[in-house]
Amino acid sequence: MRTKVTLVLVFLNVALFAYIFRFERAWRTEAASREARRRVLGPEAARITTLEVEAPGGGYRLVRERDTWFLTRPLERWPANPHAVTGLLQGLQLLEHETSFAVADLARNQQTPADFGLAPPRLTATFTSGDPAPGAPPRQTVLRLGDSTPDGRRLYVLSPDGTRIHVVNRALADLLSPPLAQLRDDTLFGVRVFEARSLGLQLAPRSAEAGAAGVRVRLRREGARWTFDAPISARASRQAVELLVNDLHTLRARSFPPMPPGTLPSAAPSLRLALEGNGRLEVLYLGEPVANPAPPEPGSAPGIEYLAQLEGRPTLFTTVVPPALLETLRAAQESLREKRVLDDLDPAAVTAIALSSPLQPGTGPVELRRLGEGPAARAWQLSAAAGDARTLPADAGRVERLLEQLSTLSVERFKSDAPTSADLEEWGFNRPLREIVLSRGGGNPPLVLRLGTDAARQLYARVGTAADPGNSIYQVDRAVLEELPVAAHAWRERAVTPPLAEAARITSVQLTEAEGGREVFAATLDAAGQATPPPRDPAALAGLLAALRAPAARDFLPGGFTPKVLAGGEERPWRYRLDAVITGAGGGPAPTTTTFSLLLTDRLGGSLQYAGSRELDTVFSLPQPVIDALWALTYGPRDPGPRPAPPR
Question: What is the CA radius of gyration of the chain?
């Protein structure tokens, strides 16, 4: 029973599918036929290569060359607006009538095509289509437009074969007769930023001293970088060049004056601008400024209107160049130059830094080396210093700040690209004020930055390698010297010792006089951190304990520990001894007890006090919060307090 039901259902499905395939296909074919019958033009409108429109008020002619459309009348080979042309072609291809009637039937009603404005026509559109066979004439189609219908909403169109008159929408006449300004493409450059390969400028001399050829500037792109090929070999600013290319796309053809009797812009340009892209070269010639320019259009930017021409297009036109763009072009040798002195420096790729001062032989060198490899390696080591063979941790934050400032070091003035020996001596490069060697990975040669100064204390930079010091001299800000001390202690890690482990506890702290051992302050701390006896200033004790858990220096003195400290022109003795007993500092299973000791000088002014350690072989200045805490603990008991108020 189930088998029979299944077979019946299968048979019904097959019959249903056959019915849908046969009859629905017929319905669709019939609908497509009805749609095709409403179209005025057939396959001849599918691939239009030329379009010419004749109208009483004037006309135009469009020609396609490969994938680009050009206006050849009334302008001579001028690019057409691709959007306007696309709208024209689609309007012709999709043109439909609302009704139509045969020309042969007009005689019955005693009418002729002239009664519909078709003899002669009000407007004629002639186009060629397809790719003709070799030697064969192109296929030409003529569409004639006549009068509007009495209601003014439609118009009469004569079919290309002249046998039928179609009634179509009135919008066809507006579509085929747009304003010339809408039909032409007023942009002067089509090469976009992403495809630009080279940029060339030639400026006419402003004076006889500038030379007959003027200034030539040529830039080319290699990957993501732009470089100068002429008049110098130097790096260009990618951002500045790309902004310039974008600005060139804002230039528009403003008007099309008749050919002047004098010299054309292409024959004697005041500026020649060449932009090369993928397989195309666009060249703009600017002539002389227009003598009597038209008033600027509302909302448009001010500028200077020039006569201009494009290479390969004889049409003369005018264009308005903004003053800022004009100044950038005239000063291209500097305005497009890379302003960063070390433009190709990647801070993450630097593996070592060597600082020296040839002008001061007794200082440095200071050598810093990155520990580890890759961008994640952030620890630095102070590997050597003059008179100090110790290897010490370096202040990673200060090193990273130095690399960041070097990578963004900007040029204030391009001093010279061909310095003489006398120039180099005058600007201090025979014995530079600073010499910074930046080693990089990947087999790249180390970069060498040399800084020199002149009698006016101006600072100059020169970048190169050990073998080639570089030809360009840049003036830079003197503030960069503040980040380049040639002293090892300036680059040391500010942590005196590693911070105490979280489980470690300071059980007692004692401050005594260095000579004689007289106790100045002492306190014992329980597990909760409460001091016995209670201190006179709990905040000062808390600040001191926090500093002892992570001892840090404001600055280190050169060399190691000394019995006295030279400060203010005289040697200062150690005045106090600070001892802190620490339990659990070893981090092992059995608690250990150690003593951390520091020798202290007196407070030397409001913000200076030194500490030293024989065990650590170092002397350093204390941070201000520690100085204030020690002052409160040492001199607090002798503080008489605030002055009493005067009697009334």
Answer: 44
Report the pLDDT value the prediction gives residue 203, as an integer from 0 to 100: 86
Domain identity same for 375 and 307: no
Question: What is the rounded CA–CA span in Å between residue 475 and residue 461?
Answer: 6
CA 45/CA 62 separation, integer angstroms: 15
**Distance from C-alpha of 340 to C-alpha of 404, rounded to nearest angstrom:** 12
Range of the domain at 56: 43-183
pLDDT of res. 640 = 54
Residues 106, 154, single domain; the answer is: yes
Q: If 0-12 CB within 10 Å is exposed, 13-18 middle and 19+ buried, where does residue 206 land?
A: exposed
What are 311-350's pLDDT values in tens digits?
888 888 999 999 999 999 988 988 999 999 998 888 988 9
Query: Could you tell me the two tokens for 16?
Result: 């249903």
Q: pLDDT digit string (tens) for 7-57?
A: 777 777 777 776 666 656 555 554 455 445 688 888 888 888 999 999 887
Cβ neighbours of residue 176 closer than 8 Å, sequence gap 6 or more: 53, 55, 88, 91, 123, 125, 145
Residue whose pair of structure tokens reads 């026509």 in the numeric block: 121
CA dihedral (11, 15, 21, 22) positive or negative: positive
Which residues have C-beta within 8 Å of that of residue 284, sequence separation ≥ 6?
188, 189, 251, 272, 273, 274, 308, 309, 310, 311
Element (H, E) at 50: strand 48-54
Q: Give yes or no: residues 179 and 215 share one domain.
A: no
Torsion of CA 48, 54, 59, 63, to 10 degrees: 20
Question: Which residues, at least 6 apart from 17, have a Cβ–Cβ distance to it below 8 Å?
Answer: none
Rounded distance between C-alpha atoms, residue 258 and residue 264, angstroms = 11
**Is residue 496 included in any domain, yes or no?**
no
Q: What is the mean pLDDT of residues 104-130?
A: 88
| CA atoms of 591 and 584, how far apart (whole Å) | 5
Tell whether 309 and 435 lie within a shared domain: no
Phi-psi category of residue 152: left, alpha or beta, with phi > 0 → left and psi -120 to 50 → alpha: left
How far, in Å, are 303, 504, 532 from residue 593 at the CA level? 81, 10, 19
67/148 same-domain check: yes
Burial class (CB in 10 A: 0-12, 13-18, 19+), 326: middle
Q: Cα separation of 385 and 403, whole Å?
A: 20
